[in-house]
């Protein structure tokens, strides 16, 4: 069996002192077609950026096989600095990959985009199609797609489904298009309450699979509650609980209570609110395409920055 193309081990990330996710581990293998799913605001797009190497986690390990090329499709492609769509698409190639340049016209023709068009004048759907062509041009081993079907018409979605099915590498995709996920996936990465579950199944089976996970969690909580109740009765029965030989049993009770408390915390929603009282993760501020005007006077446009913990900005 071939080794995974990408290994993610014990990744964790915090925003505003709150865990966005923790101890996330999974592998991406050849021919995997993984859909990354979870609640809105749960960190899916951020995790995809970590897989792509766009941002760093606060801890853990991201390992990519040497020579493995990873292509990443952002939700919002950036066209600044490119005069033509062809220039934008070809920018994905390294100097030694010029032999792939012939694919630019072919891919753009497939998505009905004029190579000489100004990318900044493209509609949302046209820009999305150009960005998909850019992701595909260098024939990567891993393709990471964040909402690839946004703004696409049905024929283009069907074309993209065909490209993914024929793609020789691995794919990880975030999408709210259930039909698209049903058509292309053979595995699920479920980011749930900051914890990752990985299953070898088509997205069509996700509801059944996730309900089974919830059922098992509920059973485990019920068993733990029963054991805690039993041990609590023992602990309050009298002096015996305070004898030295019983201190180990008492400590185990405290440990079980902490374990149960942690389970309750994981049932709630992940909060992304800033917490001024805690220590943030590595990323303190991330801003994209900030603009500001006073009346008709534009004083700031297209400003993007990322400020990490410990940075001194002046």
Automatic annotation (TrEMBL):
Keyword Protein biosynthesis on this protein?
Answer: yes
GO MF term set: ATP binding; ATP hydrolysis activity; translation elongation factor activity
List UniProt keywords, sorted A-Z: ATP-binding, Elongation factor, Nucleotide-binding, Protein biosynthesis
What the entry lists under InterPro entries is as follows:
AAA+_ATPase (IPR003593), ABC_transporter-like_ATP-bd (IPR003439), ABCF_ATPase (IPR051309), P-loop_NTPase (IPR027417)
Domain named ABC transporter: residues: 6-218
CDD domains assigned = ABCF_EF-3
| Entries under Pfam families matching the protein | ABC_tran
Q: What is this protein called?
A: Elongation factor 3
